[in-house]
Amino acid sequence: MSDSQSQGASAPSSGKPDTGYVPGDDMWTQFRNMYSILTGKMSAEGVEQFRVARDIRNEEADCKRCETQRDYLLQYSPVITFLSESIRQLGGDLHKHNIYCRRCTNRKAGGFDPEYGILICANEMKDQGHLEDTMAHEMVHAFDHLRFKVDWTDNLRHAACTEIRASSLSGECRWAREFFRRGQWKFTEQHQECVRRRAVLSVSGRPNCRDEAHAQQVVNEVWGSCFRDTRPFDEIYR
């Protein structure tokens, strides 16, 4: 076979880099993709493609599990029932009719919107404990919105303060979660460092924040008063 024939017989190139991800929902394809991830042969882009395909495939089951666990927590979780009652006393109403379990396309756990309620990213929930922390975090935001009239759009100090309080009071920065899930292995001031880190990250993502240094400055400005403010709890609950 001539060189020209050999070149003609080769598969055409798409011009796109190989990410290592192989599309397909069958078990063998899933095994190949998992093997590529575990052996480091799949690129970051390929891993994200794998996660998106998995999230789409599992959307119904993820949302159903999230809704079942949400309803349980609303009835039996001490921190969730306390926050729900505290919000009700301020004239708000957060329950299963406006706490939504949905598949999210960005990598976050959830969000609060004063008009619509709470969004839980069902495809990002690892277990019921993670869901409880996420609900508590967003319910602290709801409490702050009603109690302190938070300016979510333009006031970075408001945003920093409610993020400090939500991370501190929700339980997501307790020692066990930091140690076992996030690899933060410090034994002193771990809680404060976690709260500060997460507040800076959140403020950094807001449109009117210039950069991370600006976010750190704003968090530092409000840290003392906001970290000490444990309302509606008497102290840091978890």
Note down, in words, how this protein is organized.
It is built from ten helices and three strands, in the order H-H-H-H-H-E-E-E-H-H-H-H-H. The protein has helices spanning 3-9, 27-38, 44-57, 59-76, 78-89, 128-148, 156-169, 175-181, 190-204, 212-228, and strands spanning 99-102, 110-113, 117-121. Helix 4 packs across helix 5. InterPro entries: Peptidase_M76_ATP23.
Distance between the termini: 73 Å
General shape:
globular
Please report the number of helical segments.
10
- Beta-strand content bin: 5-15%
Helicity level: 55-70%
Structural class given helices, strands, pairing? mainly alpha
Q: How would you concisely characterize the structure shown here?
A:
This protein has helices at 3-9, 27-38, 44-57, 59-76, 78-89, 128-148, 156-169, 175-181, 190-204, 212-228; strands spanning 99-102, 110-113, 117-121. It is mainly alpha-helical and 238 residues long. Helix 4 (59-76) crosses helix 6, helix 7 (156-169) runs antiparallel to helix 9 (190-204) and helix 9 (190-204) packs across helix 10 (212-228).
